[in-house]
Amino acid sequence: MDSDAVVEIQMSSVSIPSEAALNESYRPGYTRLCPVDVPRLVDVARAALRLDPSTIPVTGLRILGAGVFNKVFFMQFGSIAVIARVPFNTPAARDPVRIISQIATLDFLSIHIPTVPVPKVLAASPDSQSPPCAPYVIAEFCKGTPLTIQEWYRDMSAASRDRAIDLLADMWVKITAPLPFKAIGSIIRRTVDPHSAMSRMGGAAESPAFHIMPMIPQFPKKWTELVDPSAETRAGPRSIAEHWAARMKEQRDDIVAAFPDEDHSVLVWDNAGSKHTLGKLWQCVRAMQELTDIAVSLDPLAHAPAMALMHADYSCWRNILFSPDRARIEGVIDWDDAIVVPRDLAALYPEELTHHTRGWRVDPPDVFAIPPGTLYEDEGLWETAIEETKQRRMFREAVGRRDPQLAELYTDRRARLRRRVDILLRDGWYAWLSRNDWVLGQGLEEARALAS
Fold first, then answer.
1. Tens of pLDDT along 112-142?
2. Which residue segments constitute the domains of the chain, with CATH numbers given?
3. How far apart are CA 442 and CA 374, in angstroms?
4. CB of 395 within 8 A of CB of 238?
5. Is the pLDDT of residue 9 over 70?
6. Which of 390, 347, 365 is nearest to 169 (CA)?
7. Exposed, middle or buried, 284 (CB in 10 Å: 0-12/13-18/19+)?
8. Beta strands 329-332 and 339-342, pairing class
9. Which of 181-195, 319-333, 366-380, 429-443 has the lowest mean pLDDT?
10. CA torsion, ordered 229, 230, 235, 241, to nearest 10 deg
11. What is the distance between the alpha carbons of residues 313 and 234, in angstroms, rounded to a whole number?
């Protein structure tokens, strides 16, 4: 059997396969377990839909996908299709606060930004002691499929690709529309009882009140610590100055803990595997402090502050689901790391328009010509970079037709600097070292020029 083939398993309510059996059907040799009790997971989904197990059996049960932190199960009950998202047994994946915030974000979108198609949550539990023996989210199945790399680069006509870019811009404008929130961070419900907030068999809860808690660290690793449960009841910072100051303190504390002897000749590795001295790292810390202080003062929306929700992985190859004819967007998924930020920080591009950008995925430099002396074998990369420059301009123009303010933030030099500073603060001191040429040179020069 081809490794990419998916075998659908038909079964009655009394012959539901185990997770291990579904693994083998998903991909021969795939063995990673959540673990989860699949028959009980099916029971939870059926109960959420209020279906009688004696009349409507589950069919088509299979693993739809498996990533680093989650596994997604597909199941069909008659004409109704649902998915069950179950995290693997790692602390960050099963962090109750993370899961509660993820569900709150989907509920907020469904209620307050209904023009953005997201999966409707039917039932959820952040508790590893739930009946399926694992946390879970049961949601309606979103139709549509992501574009493929083959489609994007080879199969789509120029007109079809241009239409896709227009659709991506239209959806991004909807996602990043100004919000009534006054704080920076992650969306959470006001209730502090996770079970009353999350459990809703048979449909969505009444429109609840939402608030912004301190930002849950994005893109966690297996060793990422659990979020303090008390953070649910605290408000996020009300200014970017407060948010960035907290990030700077975290990084300073981390450096001091890692290198307590303060020997500036000690070698330090960055996130690209290059070596630097501890002295160079402290130079970067001082430069980042200056960059942060200047960036705080350069708010292009200071006269009319606005917050926006930002999807952290806006990619049409993964999380944007298109109709079969690619003429519309059917769904936007994977809201795990979505955050509320000042709107100028949300002026970002889809990932597919920033691949060949010499490292800066945020506000990549435009390329209009192949540099003289480029090797023949490298010309293709430069040609792609030139094409992506054109596509980003097309994306901005499409945004501008719908939201001129947001479009201006893409090219505003103050906003561009703030976005780079924000990304560096998010990625931490390892990134400051790997970007030390910018942090200590070009970035500081540009910041000082803008400040003057």
1. 999 999 999 999 999 999 999 999 999 999 9
2. 28-140 (3.30.200.20), 149-190+209-223+230-451 (3.90.1200)
3. 24
4. no
5. no
6. 347
7. buried
8. unpaired
9. 181-195
10. -90
11. 26
